Amino acid sequence: MSNDEKIYQQILKAIIEHQLPPGARLPEDSLAVAFGVSRTGIRKVLQRLALEHFVVIVKNKGAQVNRPNETEALEVLDSRILIEPQLIHELLPHWNTTHSQTFRTMVQEENSAEQNSQLADSIQLTARFHYELAKLSGNRILAAFVEQLCYRSSLILAAYGTRGSVSCDGGDHSKLLDLLDKKDANNAEKWMRDHLKHIKASLILESREEQNIDFKRLFSR
């Protein structure tokens, strides 16, 4: 793993685990000192995070953790509720035993992250499950849209979610895979809709006070 990738993973983990809350400033110089790298290296990482909507970069003000508002959070989840269940009927003709095995491995990784209280990993893994599933629909435009919605959902869960947002309280993904294996499109679609509605309902849409961040301590190795 490259040094840039390690820094990216550490900052992303800090955002998702609420150590860097929405709205927190991300000064290039402070991060460069904390990681012992150049500001150029930090800038590359922040630009990558900005493309994924975890960070916003404002001209002459620098970078900060994205702060999705309540309306945005609800609109992202509502968009997923509208789109993802509909893609079930599109992906089923492509579904086979190889896909089933691949996605069951993902579920095992999700369960392991949850059991080990690795919230950042849980959020990333559940997002991957959803957008990889959407890709099987064959509709590349919608699949790419779902992927972006999943990235934005990850930030929303980091900002407003609870552990129940990504736990099996909302339905273990393996249950969906069982329905797909049976080619039960109607119940699989219903499962997906109910699952996403649970995630939406689990959000705690309240503002959090801005905090002073000690980057050197947070990212000490």
TrEMBL record:
Ranges for domain HTH gntR-type: 1-68
Ranges that cross the membrane: none
Keyword Transcription regulation: yes
Xref: Pfam families: FCD, GntR
Protein keywords: DNA-binding, Transcription, Transcription regulation
Coiled-coil features, chain-numbered ranges: none
GO MF annotation, one: DNA binding
Protein's UniProt keywords contain NADP: no
PROSITE patterns: HTH_GNTR
SMART domains per record: FCD (SM00895), HTH_GNTR (SM00345)
InterPro entries: GntR_C, TF_FadR/GntR_C, Tscrpt_reg_HTH_GntR, WH-like_DNA-bd_sf, WH_DNA-bd_sf
This protein's name: GntR family transcriptional regulator
Organism: Marinomonas transparens
